[in-house]
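idk why but the lab printer keeps eating my pages so im just putting this in chat instead. protein + S-adenosylmethionine:
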Amino acid sequence: MNGKVYLVGAGPGSKDLLTLRALEVIKQADVILYDDLIGEVAEILQETKAELISVGKRRGAHKFEQDEINKMLLEYAKAGKTVVRLKGGDPFVFGRGGEEAEFLKKNGVAFEYVPGISSAIAVPGKVGIPLTHRNYDPALIFITGQESKERLNWKALAQLNATIVVLMGLSNIEKICSALIENGKDPETPVAVIEKGFSPDERVVVGKLKDVAEKVKSMSVSPPAVIVIGGVVELKDP
Ligand SMILES: C[S@@+](CC[C@H](N)C(=O)[O-])C[C@H]1O[C@@H](n2cnc3c(N)ncnc32)[C@H](O)[C@@H]1O
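predcted complex ->
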């Protein structure tokens, strides 16, 4: 009989931000395929009986292609194993969990989605930036910084009164800021770049749309980082 796959969110990196359901399925797992951005949750994995497989895919250092990961999920499930596919944040927020769910469904493998706290929300919140506040923009948008320029409607993004949260955007921060300015967003709009949230190396760089890319470069900010564009950045902790 087939086993089951759990698509689990590890949260933003702090082990006490793992959900009770996530902890329960991690403890039951025979095999855990995990990504890089799971922070302290990696320590919990060491205490389990499961076979641990790192399938982390950081930019420029691909360990496993998505097809290979899918194949492993299928093979372990067919062998009757309880499989945890552990991802940073929430599996369905820019985490390719949707693709894995689709693949498992297509192949008749039972799976369950176990939500995690997304870095997109928790990392800004950790440094005092609430993504919404009634005195600021009335909308909230999440974008990936890795999308080709053509597929995002920069004009709409620039003109909507929305807080914009960018994941995987650090390497393209200059292009992202220029595209927004070129399409009419105020160059004075506050921007925060939060590097390695929830880790001892956490740093925040604050600037304006017109100069934040330069600041990020001069401070050698490195991934992972969440970028927040909008007035709410003014609320950041001092
Ligand atoms: C592939 S996406 C996965 C997002 C994840 N599924 C989530 O919900 O948080 C990876 C991006 O998430 C952001 N990220 C994840 N963990 C982070 C952290 N601890 N600090 C800052 N950014 C983080 C960065 O933008 C990074 O490039």
